[in-house]
Design goal:
Blueprint: E1 2-7, E2 10-13, E3 18-26, E4 33-39, E5 46-51, E6 58-60, E7 68-73, E8 78-83, E9 92-99, E10 111-112, E11 116-121
Parallel strand pairs: 2-11
Antiparallel strand pairs: 1-3, 3-8, 4-5, 4-9, 5-6, 7-8, 9-10, 9-11
């Protein structure tokens, strides 16, 4: 079992930056692939980015490539999402999640945080 707590969300103007953090506790953090998802009102929860257990490989959905960076620090049991050049369409609740394998679908993730709101104003 692993518990996940996100932080770092907030209100930012278009073009600005935010850094989300997700702190994990419980079973060995480094044994999990990690993902960031987001859900806007009335929409499904979609993958934003994911990272392997070692941090060697990453995945980004097309709409955030070149703007967002996922990283992890296994010594600190934390995964990050650096978000630059934010757009109003990035507005959503952002969730971090843990999975046994490196996957890009929400159904493959076993553990979820409570979410953090990101709002980008135009």
């Amino acid at each position: 079992q692993v518990q996940l707590v996100e932080s770092g969300g907030g209100l930012v103007q278009a073009g600005g930056s935010l850094r989300l953090s997700c702190a994990a506790s419980g079973r060995t953090f480094s044994s999990y692939a990690m993902g960031w998802f987001r859900q806007a009102p009335g929409k499904e929860r979609d993958i934003v980015a994911s990272i392997t257990q070692s941090g060697y490989s990453t995945y980004y959905t097309d709409s955030v490539k070149g703007r967002f960076t996922i990283s992890r620090d296994n010594a600190k049991n934390t995964v990050y999402l650096q978000m630059n050049s934010l757009k109003p369409e990035d507005t959503a609740v952002y969730y971090c999640a843990a999975a046994d394998h490196f996957m890009v679908v929400a159904g493959a993730y076993n553990y979820w945080g409570q979410g953090t709101q990101v709002t980008v104003s135009s």
